[in-house]
Write a structure and sequence with these properties.
The complex is a heterodimer of chains A (145) and B (84). By secondary structure, chain A is of the alpha+beta class. Chain A is 35% helix and 33% strand. Chain A contains four helices and eight strands, in the order βαββαβββαββα. In chain A, the strands form two sheets. In chain A, strands 1-4-6-2 form a four-stranded mixed β-sheet, sandwiched between helices. A four-stranded antiparallel β-sheet of chain A has the order 5-3-7-8, with no helix packed on it. In chain A, α2 packs antiparallel against α3 and α3 crosses α4. The longest helix of chain A is centred in the C-terminal third of the chain and has 18 residues. Chain B is an alpha+beta fold. Helices cover 23% and strands 27% of the residues of chain B. Chain B has three helices and five strands. A five-stranded mixed β-sheet of chain B has the order 2-1-5-3-4. The longest helix of chain B has 9 residues. Chain B is globular and about 35 Å long. Classes of the chains: A alpha+beta (145), B alpha+beta (84). At the A-B interface, β3, α2, α3 and β7 of A face α1 of B.
């Protein structure tokens, strides 16, 4: 029902959504978010994390979402390692009885994940490699919750 | 008091080590004091002091700079996170 995974390998977003939909006959709504590596200048992106703390912080966010909304199930999957443009980075899926809880909890989970879970992105372009800077907009979005 | 210290991402790249075990002198009792003490060990460690947006965690949970440090803790310093 409550799944958190940090992994190198890709995930099947469709299958994860399907599983949330079928987890219980109570489910009436599934909302999911998939984050991918944007192309353009960026040739590749490497995601570093803090093993142990990463899982702990994602589990704490799922716990908080369960306290705030009436949910039936949730899945958070985050990839680490070197990813190419177009590749999936993160999946957040929430199942609930009604849509409003699923929408809110899904947005809460990704907003807070972006400012609290210990992942760091390093971007490679044709001529340089640089660590991505945190965005004030992301902080503001996370503070809304 | 002995603690394990971890550094991540751009901060780690700016320091001599990714991870270390240190014995703290008396008086170093908070995350802020630990940061200052670690950063005062010479030029190579100065980024710990000068880094403007540093975050910290104690025993794998984000914490404030006035958080107490205890014997056996695992503490970490890192730039703001950028996952998702």
């Amino acid at each position: 029902m409550w799944t958190v995974r940090v992994q190198v390998e890709d995930f099947d977003a469709g299958a994860e959504g399907e599983r949330l939909q079928r987890v219980s006959p109570e489910v009436g709504a599934v909302v999911s978010f998939v984050g991918t590596v944007r192309g353009g200048e960026v040739r590749a992106m490497t995601l570093e994390h803090y093993p142990g703390m990463t899982e702990k912080s994602l589990e704490a966010l799922v716990e908080e979402a369960r306290r705030r909304w009436s949910l039936v199930a949730a899945t958070v999957i985050h990839r680490v390692g070197r990813l190419m443009p177009g590749e999936r980075i993160v999946f957040v899926g929430v199942a609930s009885r009604h849509r409003s809880e699923a929408f809110a909890a899904c947005e809460f989970l990704i907003d807070r994940l972006k400012t609290e879970a210990p992942f760091w992105k390093k971007e490679e372009t044709n001529d340089s490699t640089r660590w991505v800077e945190a965005k004030e907009g992301d902080e503001a979005r996370a503070r809304r919750w | 008091m002995a603690v394990r210290v971890l550094y991540f991402a751009a901060l780690r790249d700016a320091l001599p080590l990714a991870e270390e075990a240190v014995s703290l002198p008396a008086g170093v009792e908070t995350m802020a004091a630990l940061r200052a003490w670690l950063g005062a060990r010479g030029e190579a460690w100065a980024p710990l002091v000068t880094w403007k947006t540093l975050r910290c965690a104690r025993n794998q949970t984000l914490c404030a700079w006035d958080e107490p440090v205890r014997d056996g803790d695992e503490v970490a310093f890192f730039p703001p996170v950028t996952g998702g």
